[in-house]
Amino acid sequence: MTQGTLERLAALLADVCGAPVSSLGPTSAPGVTPGWDSVAMLGFIAAVEDELAIAITTDEALKIKTLGDMAALVEAKRGG
């Protein structure tokens, strides 16, 4: 995954869950990242879809366990 993708997603996640961007990295995950719970996850997915003009299926969403997983999914969908 590229650093740019990870930084963009970290900014979106920070907006949704309120965690400082500086605290977010590829291993950040729901349950261990302050504010990132199941409700924030839904908001994060919606923000990613809106911001990056991609669609994330339910099956894909269920496989996202970390910010790095989201970055890998985004890059795969964008042909990166």
Folded structure, characterized:
This protein has 80 residues and is mainly α. Helix content is 57%, strand content 0%. The protein is built from 4 helices and no strands. The chain has helices at residues 3-17, 38-52, 58-62, 67-77. The relative contact order is 0.21. The model has no long low-confidence stretch (mean pLDDT 95).
Radius of gyration: 11 Å
| Class from secondary-structure proportions | mainly alpha
Q: What is the oligomeric state here?
A: single chain
- Largest sheet composition: none
Q: Measure the end-to-end span.
A: 8 Å
Helical percentage: 55-70%
Instruction: Spell the H/E element sequence.
Output: HHHH
Describe the global form.
globular
Give the overall pLDDT as a whole number: 95
Tell me the number of strands. 0
| Percent in strands | under 5%
The stretches of 5 or more residues where confidence is low (pLDDT under 50) are none
Q: So how many helices?
A: 4
Give the helix/strand layout.
Elements: H1 3-17, H2 38-52, H3 58-62, H4 67-77
Helix pairs in contact: 1-2, 1-4
Give a brief rundown of this model:
This protein is mainly α and about 80 residues long.
Key attributes of the depicted protein:
mainly alpha
